[in-house]
Design a protein that fits this description.
Distance between the termini: 37 Å
Order of helices and strands: HEHHEEHHEHEHEEEHEEEHEEEHE
Number of strands: 15
Shape: elongated
Number of domains: 2
Helix content: 25-40%
CATH class of the largest domain: Alpha Beta
Structural class: alpha/beta
CATH architecture of the largest domain: 3-Layer(aba) Sandwich
Length: about 260
Amino acid sequence: MYATERQQLIERMLADDGRVAVVDLAARFDVTTETVRRDLAALEEAGALRRVHGGAVSPERTSTAEPSVAERSLRRSEAKERIARRALAALPTGAGSIYLDAGTTTAALAAALVARTSPSGCEVVTHSMTIAHSLAGVSGIGLTAIGGRVRGLTAAAVGSDTVAAIGRLRPDVAFLGANGIAVGAGLTTPDPEEAAVKRAVVAGARRVIVLADADKFEAELLVSFADLSDLDVVVTDRDPGTALSRALRDADVEVWIA
């Protein structure tokens, strides 16, 4: 296979998965890792990718990149709905309390709660204005909305008042979103204020469940807000891959595939 052909295939793989690994590419193309690195260097020079440790990512996948909630709601919606339905199994039995983090996959879980044939009887707490709006007035679901300054990009309350209010809570289960989940960095997000809110949720919850589609695997954003060892379950739509699966297993984290 010529270098041009390999590079075209690498670009297609990036378009599909958002990330490629040097070792995997070398095995797939039956070439040396040095050859793959030369291919990645040529593609980076052309602006087609950004090299990271062990591989490369799409050029727009930087540590501060953050699409709006409206943009994210259009991405991988079917996978998010499957994840949400699978996550229903983690609801506390009987009446209990759950925290719903801001995000499109947690919003899908809120929609799944509403669609249940029998009332859950649970108390839902959230700082997401989108989720609060979708649950307001739904029979069988109690709702507490945490206020604060609302970020337009995510429609979520942030700031010291928000963090302080969350710090007084001890929900039975917290369903958390993340922009990235990686072996070294744990859970990450681009914005420091969003990270502070998520960190408070993790600290207070009795059980922490992350809802993350496969696009989040091995992505590392600017701010880390939780270690893998802080988690109890990761609900996703695809196997996380060898390295991340091993790290989650070593941290005693269950992985549920939707």
